[in-house]
Amino acid sequence: MKNIKTYLLMAAMAFSTTACLDKYPDDMVPTDKAITTVDEVDQAVIGIYSSWLNGALYSGYLTLLPDIQVDLAYAVNGYSNQFGNTWRWNILSTEPEYESVYAGLYTVITRCNFMLDNVDRVRQNTTNDDDLDRLDQYCGEAYFARALAYSELIKLFCKAYDPATAANELGVVLKSHYDGDEPTLRSSLEASYQFVLDDLERAAGYLKLEDDFDGVLYSTPYFCEYTIYALRARVALYMQNWKDAEKYASKVIDSKYYKLSSVNDMITSSQNAYQYMWSNDESTEIIWKVGMTVSNYGGALGQVFFNYDFQSFKPDYVPATWVLNLYSEQDLRFAANFVTQPTGYPHGLQWPLVAKYFGNESFMAQNMLHVCMPKVFRLSEQYLIRAEARANQKNYSGAGKDLSDLRRARFQGGNGNISVSEQNWLEIIEEERVRELYMEGFRLQDLKRWHKGFERKPQEQSLANGSSLKIEADDVRFVWPIPKHELESPGSQIQPNESNK
């Protein structure tokens, strides 16, 4: 594993977001003039990590839009119209936010391909064993990053996976080389997920920890063996492969490298471990986060929930009433996730705001508001994945144990036990995923894969246009449209989604 300080010092390289499937990003050079040494491979991998700082990805649109689109938040009267089309379900192929997500993810993929296409030449000219080990590590990181980027593209721009039909459904454009003649065609959904699984298998061969490894893995900005397991569990859940979802989530949970942050453990005199995770981006349950420093950071996740100008709060979005009502009095996640504040609007709305994204305290000390490190993989999600996988295999007691273990870390006094049955398991898991993963980008995919719709009902000072919205299950707009410029670019053979029409 690299030294975290090295990453934080070196990640200051700037990388521009390029058009989605451009072969040559502006800051790259032809392959025959680049990457000839191990250190240059290292720089390429730093570029891959830095590309996740893009505000269109986890520190912005990729995380926020899927939850704002559905039923977790309401636009407030007087808001700035940020994400307005998404909230109103005007899901347009010309929407800059969708284009930016699509382009940002393909930028990650392009960088991975650039490194992977060059690394063999470097390996052939390398004899030092330590350097060869470094190259293996870098390859593993690139394969994992590519798998992660493709998994997010599939999640947003494709239908939910059904094993019976996936071979005939549209997937994504698969590019495995930086410099080649691969067709710009969408593969099947089945082939797209298989590509992700193949990359994860390759990554696993390079990133496996030594048997005697006794270091710390939590709160890292680096990929490792357990980030692979975490993504494999998530992908298996989305593919309805319940056995593998349980298997890989168990590898993470049972590893003992990670521990749920308990509301009953105080880190400071005023903050418990769960609160501290959101206010300082450090926790024993963080499997992978996007690393940031005050001089090198991404978007401001909390901006639309506060818009604080050092005088007042004017949030664009506030939590849905039904979400707030899900938390019981003993559930101390509520106090960490939400804080009630009067707003600076003329209507004077006073409402719980999304406290978990108010910002990292180190950044706030530099007057950088609402910036925090996205926690892309957390141990709690693995408990939720395993609970759902077990319930789908009719192991309701096992599902109940996983949910109870999670809730005991979140409830005052270690309470929170819950029973799961054949009749109630989906409702219980759905509610627990909302409580635990609120505004972390999972809700749109959850409703899509469960084939569920939703309905909004007006709440205090909610914007009229969008507050009385009813969306039926399997509405084509659950799948984001392929950006229009991709479909209309010269020579494009990319097939549109139904939401493009």
TrEMBL record:
Key words of the record: Cell outer membrane, Membrane, Signal
Descriptive protein name: RagB/SusD family nutrient uptake outer membrane protein
Domain RagB/SusD: 376-487
Annotated organism of origin: Bacteroides faecis
UniProt similarity note: Belongs to the SusD family.
Higher taxonomy: Bacteria, Pseudomonadati, Bacteroidota, Bacteroidia, Bacteroidales
Location within or outside the cell: Cell outer membrane
Signal peptide coordinates: 1-21
InterPro entries, A to Z: SusD-like_N, SusD_RagB_dom, TPR-like_helical_dom_sf
SusD-like N-terminal domain span: 21-210
Ranges in coiled-coil conformation: none
